[in-house]
Amino acid sequence: MFFYVNFFILCYTKNGDSMNIIDIINKKRKDGILTFEEIEFAINGFLNDEILDSQMSSLLMAMVINGMSDQETFDMTDIMLKSGDIVDLSSINGIKVDKHSTGGVGDKTSLIVVPLVASCGVKVAKMSGRGLGHTGGTIDKLESIDGFNVNLSEESFIKQVNEIGCALISQTFELAPADKKIYALRDKTATVESIPLIAASIMSKKLASGADKIVIDVKVGEDAFMKEIDSARELAKLMVKIGKNKGKEVVCVLTNMEQPLGNHIGNALEVHEAIKTLNNDGPKDLVSVVMTLASIMVSLGKSISIEDAKTEVEENLRNGKAYQKFKDMVAYQQGNIENIPVSKHVFSIKSSKTGFITEINAYRLGMIERSMNANRFNQDGLIDATVGFVLNKKIGDYVLENEELLKVYLNTNDVNVKEVLDCFEIKDNLAQELPLIYEIIK
Which of 210, 200, 171, 216 lies closest to 78 in space, CA to CA? Predict the structure, then answer.
């Protein structure tokens, strides 16, 4: 009897009409447009274990196959947003600007952008996550700094942002738990690749984080979630629409992720590269992305043109104010900036041929790095923050046979040199260079 009741669980709408999950699945399967109440019934029922995984999977598959209207996407975002905590940042003085990236190998931009933007007088109260899979998480990178405390109380978090302009902490609130549960199911049921579902997932969490303005770095390429520029553009436009629907200004930047960003890959190594960049000595691709994101954030926070914001950002990178702000943040969060250890076991991998580098498979490099325990295989996994790679060559560079391609920092695990070399494609002719910043959508 319990199974029967659960399977045909009913509710009643404001009009007194009954509603059940089977009817909702059938409606979407037939390409119908779901109402707010129907989406709410499905999501909240699933979150409360009143709707089965199999039923929610069927509904998600119907959404993937038939798509979702903008209004359905707005409603789904709103329902997931309200399923958990919504952070109140109103006690932080001034405009709060947040930044999100869809992720990629070597993406350490938050470590640089947060203090850089704060050095220009714009408040950044950022909550980030840990890594899972082939990429590292911002929190894992920060924890490679000896003593760095990512678990601040809400009171300490807000106090720090008011006093020094920025804080970077682990997510301490229960933000959008419905999205978390739905995403875990999507990951197991081949329903991840849906632009409306991706947009609702990202925006429910970012809106719950409490910022006034949001800048999103949408990565595009073989190492990115969005492989094609057209799909990335569609996702960006939809996230901007969701922001407008909720009264929030959202700007999306489409950036190239056809190779690792910067030269350092690995938690502690990426912190070292972030510090170099904050000291105006970063690799040009990383600097270019950082400058674009930071300029937009400062522009939004101070209501000035992007050109004027860029001038200010460039100056603070040059004069040391950005690095000083990073040091202030590390000190406030009990970190020792002088103690960011990397493995002492380093060896060089050299090119097996002469030519131009036309491809670097960042995904495969990230998976090799994960086999060195640099990233997690599951949520509870332990990581080694001291290991990783430092690239000596990037796409477009000319390399000689037996010239160093990269250095490997490792501890207990061996690395298959052939597997690493297979991540690099070397040809006689130079490949066409793709732009680093494809487009800004607002």
Answer: 200
Identify the band that residue 96 occupies on the pLDDT scale cut at 50, 70 and 90.
very high
160-170 per-position pLDDT tens digit:
999 999 999 99
**Residue-level length of the chain:** 442
Report yes or no: 75 and 193 within 8 Å, Cβ to Cβ: no
8 A C-beta contact, residue 408 and residue 389: yes
Helix (H), strand (E) at residue 12: strand 10-12
Buried/exposed 286-308: b ≥16 CB within 10 Å, e otherwise: bbbbbbbbbbbbbbbbbebebee
Question: 389 - beta bridge partners?
Answer: 265, 408
The SS3 assignment for 187 reads helix
Q: Is 100 a catalytic residue?
A: yes
pLDDT band, very low/low/confident/very high, at 370 (cuts 50, 70, 90): confident
Spot the catalytic one: 28, 96, 100, 233: 100
201 is catalytic: yes
At 411 the pLDDT is: 87
**Phi/psi at 296 (nearest 5 deg)?**
-65, -45
Closest CA to 378 of 128, 148, 131: 131
- Active-site option among 179, 212, 217, 328: 179
Using CA atoms, how far apart are residues 48 and 138, in angstroms rounded to an integer?
A: 31
Contact predicate 323/276, CB 8 Å: no
Distances in Å between the Cα of 148 and the Cα atoms of 286, 331, 334 are: 24, 8, 5
- The Cα angle at residue 215 between residues 209 and 216, in degrees rounded to 5: 90
Please say whether the beta carbons of 372 and 431 come within 8 A. no
From the list 201, 204, 295, 299, the catalytic residue is 201
| pLDDT tens sequence across 110-148 | 999 999 999 999 999 999 877 655 677 899 999 999 999
- 205 belongs to the catalytic site: yes
Provide, for the chain, the percentages of residues in helix, strand and coil under a 3-state DSSP scheme, each rounded to the nearest 5: 45, 15, 40
Q: What angle do CA 252, 262, 161 make, to 5 degrees?
A: 55
Known catalytic residue: 186? yes
Residues 6+ apart with CB under 8 A from 52: 6, 7
